[in-house]
Amino acid sequence: AGSLDVNMLVVLNDNDMSISENVGAMSNYFARVLSGKTYSTLREGGKKMLRSMPTVWELARRSEEHVKGMVLPGTMFEEMGFNYIGPIDGHDLDALVKTLQNLRDLQGPQFLHVVTRKGKGYAPAEADPITWHGPGPFDAESGTIFKKTSTGPTYSKVFGDWLCDMATADERIIGITPAMREGSGLVEFSRRFPERYYDVAIAEQHAVTLAAGLACEGAVPILAIYSTFLQRAYDQLIHDVALQKLPVVFAIDRGGLVGGDGATHQGAFDLSYLRCIPNIVVMAPADENECRQMLYTATTLECPAAVRYPRGQGPGVEIRQTMSALPVGRADLRREGASGLLLLAFGTMVAPCEKLAESYDATLVNMRFVKPLDEQLVCALAETHECIITLEENVIAGGAGSAVSECLAESGMDRTVHRIGIPDRFIEHGSRSDCLAMAGLDPAGLTKSIEKIWSNHRNGSQRDLAIARGSTL
Prior knowledge:
473 residues, alpha/beta, seven-stranded mixed sheet, 40% helix
């Protein structure tokens, strides 16, 4: 951008906040300089000196370029071709608006450095910006954040506990996060194993490439990352990890519908964008214990492996502390039914399907692996069941249900697969339960969809039978 002779403005909102604690040389440099006596002395001295020269002071006030630039990162940005202005107080709205108005008249690339404070004006948020980054409902007067009643550990907690257990037993374990320590459940790990904890800040691409490099050197890198954020590092995932078949473990949090963070944070696409990549194993746990065992399974493989789990709590299954590797590509037949209805459920869809399977006397399979798919079981069950339904908390297009359809087609089986998943639209803001309802993936929505599919199938079968007998319904 600095090499182009165009009129543009880059605004750095320097709010001393990176969701988790700040890391890196740039953050340290800004903090050191902005809090230093040299900057404060020059700033105040410069103001007094310039005020004694009205014409010069007006010029400096108008362009916001007085002595601050001599001791701040202005030189670096100037070398990139930008005209550096700042730092200015982003909470002084009069000065900020005036500065922006003045910058409209300047020619060439401009760089405005604005300093703000996270939670400005609300004491609890200023004191603890990490907790107050996304607090949910709270009492403004007392500063009390209302916590939901916990019925068990979240999947993030399951992951964090597992990582600490693994790190205790294996010195090769490395934990990596792109500035999501708290959300990903890495706080305890960062405290107990600081020499094996890497926060690369909000740089998902670098997080993946760092994991690849560590894997090359014999480490066991565990990258904790939100589903929506892994999208940013897709190129690195393919070229730096999968192409070289490096054993990197991707602990993909917030898979599926996230809720309160809105459409940008829904982890709706990962099963689709992961399963098309060669050399990678993709797992979706049905409960908390299966998540722990799948994470362990991932560390035993000599290839990239992804364990994709949702936000919040699971169905409440007891977690076994002992860990054992699951057979790769093998599903779990949960229930054998007699009705001819087959439910192939992936991940979070297994638990709500258990009651539905009983009510329809259906066969229920916890598929476990999206890639490699348990093709042998899928084909065998397809031979003996009339109606096949796949269920996943992922977009229908290219998802796990598509993998089942492809499997049957490649096996020469002319079978219709009814796919239930996130519809072809962006699911907007709401609680996780609200979002599931909007997508038709809550218990009521699943019941409605399965009933419609099963009813249409039975009516169609009766029509076919009547036609075969030479009569009409």
